[in-house]
Each structure stands twice: as C-alpha cells, then as structure tokens.
Predict the structure.
Amino acid sequence: MADLNTLLNTQSFIEQNARDRAKSLLDKGSFKELLDPFSRMLSPWLLKQNIVAQADDGVIVMKGFIQQQPAVVISIEGIFQGGSLGEVGGAKIAGALELAIEDNRKGIPTVAVLLLETGGVRLQEANLGLAAIAEIQSAIVELRQYQPVIAVIAGNVGCFGGMSIAAGLCSYLIMTREGRLGLNGPQVIEQEAGIQEYDAKNRPFIWSICGGEQRFASALVDVFVADDRQKIQQCVQQYIAQGIPEVHRSRKADFYLSKLLHVDTTEQITPLAVQTLYQGEQA
C-alpha cells in the first residue's frame, strides 16, 4: 500500500513541457522568463526551408531563485526539432550563461541549471549551431569556477552530439532511467557502422548502453533518480548547497583515457563490461 501511495503522489518531471520543468525547479513566484515567445525569437533559417518555426526556438530561459539563491534555469524542448540547437536557441543558452557569469563577477552568486533534451546541433543550421554550442561550452567552463552548473537529463530524447560534451563539462549530472547520454545518437551510429554494430530499434540494448541507470553504474553521472519532480528538485537543491566540486569530471581525462586503452574494439562491449571498466578505481 505504501508503494501505491508513493506512486499516486508522484508527479512526473518528464511529462511536463520544457517551460513547466523550468518553473518546477524555481521558488514559487520568483521566476521570470527571458525572451519568452512574445519576443518572437524565431529561427530565420527554418522559415527559409519551409519548416514551421517556434517563437522561442525551443529554448526556455527562466531567471529566479532556488531556495532564495539567484539561479538561471535553461530548458530545451525535446519535442521541437528533437531538441536540436540552431543559431537562436544556442545564442539564448550562451547568453544566459554569460549573464550568470557577469552576475557572479558583480558579487551576485547565480547558479545555472540545464535541462537537456537535445540531439545536439540542428542539421538545418549546422555551422551556426556548432558555433553556438562552442560558446555554450566555453561559458559553462567559466561559470563553474564561480558556482555549480547542474545538468538534468530526464526524458527519452536524451542528450547527444555537442551538447553531450557540454553536459560532461557541468559540475554535476543528474539522470533518470528514461534519460540517455552519448556522443553520437543510436541512429547515427547505425547509419555509419551498420546495424550489426548498433541496432537503433533495439530499445533495451540502447538503454543498457547509454541509459541513465547504466551511466550512473559506470560513474559517468552523479546521481540516478526516479522520474519524480520533487526528487529531481531535491537533487538540484542538494548540489547547489554542496557547491563547486573539488575536481570536475572533465579534469579527469587521464583517468578515462587510461581505461579506454583496455577496451577491445574488435568485440561489442557489454553493459557489465563498461561498469567493470570504471569500477576498478573511483572516477
């Protein structure tokens, strides 16, 4: 009965749209959306290709407070163009992070939370998207010197491409069972290496390789949490209170490279083998 009551009282984080996810993490009544849909920040490149654009380009930026600490929450809408980033959406994210850096320089301790549901660069805006993601990555590295930058990968769109590198640069990573994290998406790997290498339609296999539970077991993310709005909110608050980590994961490149030297690329690696690979020493 206790388990049933818990289930009934659980509010899904994944089932919310990007705007509501951002609001759910900020103190009630404290938030304001920057460049909201009424600003009409549409991608001019999608319109040129007869693709219906979205007034916020699929990126929501909310400024407010989390437990009375200044915060900016950036949320990507995964159902719009697969959460892909182009010129406008990428500039919104980079600009928001740069404003947080400026706040910190002025003595305002602003933290950043990224809600990542993205396939990476938008193919219709490839070079512009790549440039924007480079600016995002640079801003994360600078901001994390002042305050923690926290990423949440919750929904089944996952986080791939250049934005997976951005996620790896964050101070803390939070994932659910439904989330996925990888440099290349399953369809891309299958297209380039063949279905024998990576069957993109084999969902159990895909999640066993790059799903949230596997990434946590491999020590590649900091916490594995249920799809529960309150629990995700608590994790974000916990890491804000914890502050900047002693060593960021991205500073441990030598550790990860030493592990990759032991991988036999002639055989398909198993989920258990990945976990064993990283469990020999704390990442």
